[in-house]
Amino acid sequence: MTDNPTTLRLGTRTSALAMWQAEHVAASLRQSWPTLSVELVPFVTQGDRMLDQPLPEIGGKGLFTAELESALRKDEIDLAVHSLKDLPTEDPDGLVIGAILERADPRDAWVCPEGYSLAEVPAGASVGTSSHRRASQILKHRPDLVVESIRGNVGTRIEKVRSGAYDAAVLAVAGLERLGRLSDAQEILDLEVMLPAPAQGALAVQVRADDKTVGPLVAAIDHATTRREVEAERYLLAALGGGCSAPVAALATESETHLRIQARVLSLDGHTCIDIDESVSTEGVDLDNAALALGEAAAHTARDHGADLLLRS
To answer: Which pTM does this prediction carry?
Structure first.
């Protein structure tokens, strides 16, 4: 296959972070297939254009993926790069996730130019986030804070906090690291305080399900351990019937003997919280089945503790 140079058209959003992610995928593909040429095709999505309203109110994170998926179906591009946490748990018609790259740090960071930590910031301080998951966990630990919607790319959100529009904001560590902005964070939030979104920190490469040329090329950069971990998290989310914006947090980790998931389902105000910690053995079992079993077991435990009521509310 490497004897036949191929050019792939890779679709990406235009933000600095999206372009970094696309370049990273392109470099990974070129490393696996030295004769491969990868051309970036930028898109401005509806979500990028609608920056004046809270994300959950205008349709959620699907607004960032629809244009790319449409172009993929029309054969205008050969593959698309997404932050996996932005993708629905079910594949769209005709498309599949051809590869999941090795996950970066999945944690969240606290950005506060005044230098306060989450524990130290004064009561009544405003915290910017568009995530129900982040908002719920912030309010669980600091119900005296005011959570407000914040939109824009990583740099824009940091500048909004620096300008005084917000006292602090919560952003993904992975995004800050990829853009060389981790020094803007005052602290990386402990997992006891802030569990990440399912699949946070992982990049997904989306391809056409029937593309027999691109599929094998992309499969070469799939990271098996990351795929199992994030699939366990996404199975949990799917089993609970929650979408990308639901106040559900999850982090799965694979060891030599077990696959473990820590998860959290919260009310929007953070007053009610269900914590789940489940593990399954990986010895002598099909690892993909173990991920499915773990996600479903964690969802069952969450339901036993009232998760359905929280998500409905």
So the answer is: 0.90
